[in-house]
Amino acid sequence: MIICSLTFCFCSVVNDAKESVTILVVGASGDLAKRKTYPALLALYKASLLPSVTIIWGFARTEMTHYGFRHHLKPFLNDADECVVDQFLSICNYRPGSSYGDWESMDSILKASPSRNLVVYLATPPNVFAQSAAVLKKTLTLTPTNGFVRLVLEKPFGSDTESCETLLRTLNNQEWLEQQLYRIDHYLGKEMVQNILTLRQQNRWLNSLWNKDAVKSVHIICKESFGTDGRGGYFDRYGIIRDIFQNHLLQLLTLVAMDMPEKSCATKLRNAKLEILRKIPVINLEDCLFGQYEGYKDDSSIENRDTVTPTYACIRTWVHNETWRNVPFVLEAGKALNDRLCEIRLHFRGVKNGQPNSLVLRLQPVPTIFLTANVKTPGFSYNPVSARMQVDYGQALMPDAYTRLLLDVFRGKQANFVRDDELLASWKIFTPILNQTEQLNIVPEPYMRGSTGPDKRVEFLRSVGAIPSWSPPPSAL
Ligand code: NDP
Ligand code: BG6
């Protein structure tokens, strides 16, 4: 039974950003900038959510003119209204450079800008973060009066506890303040993820079921139907744990497990998440299943032909507090699987007709909420049958995660960004298992492209207390 279908428009959001801003995209010639950053800026521009005086500068080593850069960006700005795209492109400028002198010229340009507010978006490879941040701090006018300077950073933030600590220390030594730093985890900008808090805050009946007495297990699953195609070079050095688990999946887990703060201000929210991260033990090898899809090594960008980097993992963990004691949290993610699907499944205690009562928050492909319940079979039968109640977001106009997060940067809202202590706590959970798998050279289980994962998956999921093949029961009876 479909009980609700939502339609709303994000244009109605009130923009309380300052009146003007200059945006500097460092690494503007790259993949992220053209596929995510600039399209997100266009969406804000189109919805009149950018400050009225906005100038965007792109900076990278590749030689391009303003015109050449706009030409390079245009194919990625998918909007039916070409006129809006052209207007947007007219505020996008580009300057090539890499030397200290080039940065100084960039600084002079920014100084001449009418705005005292500067947002710097670092869309460069992680190995040049620290260096770029240092140059920025030295050359650019980063202490404007009556304005703000905010630095947006992309993941990965380190590759283990030690490298993360080094990066945090470096930024700290460069005198970047935590309130200036916006570390993006784009999952925090997804519609359904934002909805977790609203659901929990606005439905007291639901909150009373949100604990170990009612919940038997939590399964957070993130399947991708494509492989590492083209990104194998990056991926092979990081693997699925660093790519998805340490950030996206763990953020989802903390939002589900945290105690709801009385006020949802950034500090309280991030404190509540941190508290949960500190209650998650380091991961045990026995609680992990690793997989690698067949054909992964054929990616020409992967140098090591014998690589044992996992492209799939399933991990059971716990939250050692009163609310969640003995409830398994099972995290599962993989590339080149049979589907693109990301869901948070809370399975309640007590199973009837082989189907548990479940609350499922589907993030993608289409944000949907399912609640399964046992109802009477329609007609003469009194047998109970499992049915789903569903909130379907359908075609509701929803901003892309990057669009929403960038709007938060302009508004100075940090709740949806990852704080330094959260980051460190999350690396501490995974670093021991990363070290162990590397030292022991654990060989992942093979699985076929387009399958549901390694053959051992079902048995493993059962053994860790999860339900291997949950799918929503029929909506129409
Ligand atoms: P790219 O490899 O495309 O590089 C981004 C930019 O950085 C390029 O414009 C390049 O420009 C510049 N660059 C590269 N090497 C250097 C260097 N040594 N010194 C200075 N500039 C350099 O990366 P992506 O755009 O894919 O990713 C950017 C960041 O975003 C990375 O941290 C990545 O991990 C992260 N990320 C990317 C995602 C994606 O979908 N692409 C998703 C999530 C995170 P030029 O050569 O012109 O200087
Ligand atoms: C990125 C990972 O952070 O998230 C990618 O680096 C992954 O490997 C991507 O494909 C998934 O994001 P989304 O929004 O497509 O689920």
TrEMBL record:
GO BP of this protein: glucose metabolic process; pentose-phosphate shunt, oxidative branch
Function: Catalyzes the rate-limiting step of the oxidative pentose-phosphate pathway, which represents a route for the dissimilation of carbohydrates besides glycolysis.
Lineage: superkingdom: Eukaryota
Domain Glucose-6-phosphate dehydrogenase C-terminal: 198-464
Protein name: Glucose-6-phosphate 1-dehydrogenase
Pathway(s): Carbohydrate degradation; pentose phosphate pathway; D-ribulose 5-phosphate from D-glucose 6-phosphate (oxidative stage): step 1/3
EC numbers: 1.1.1.49
HAMAP family: G6PD
PROSITE patterns: G6P_DEHYDROGENASE
Start and end residues of each Glucose-6-phosphate dehydrogenase NAD-binding domain: 25-195
A single GO molecular function term of this UniProt record: NADP binding
Family listed: Belongs to the glucose-6-phosphate dehydrogenase family.
EC supergroup of this enzyme: oxidoreductase
Reaction(s) catalysed by this chain's protein: D-glucose 6-phosphate + NADP(+) = 6-phospho-D-glucono-1,5-lactone + NADPH + H(+)
Keyword terms: Carbohydrate metabolism, Glucose metabolism, NADP, Oxidoreductase
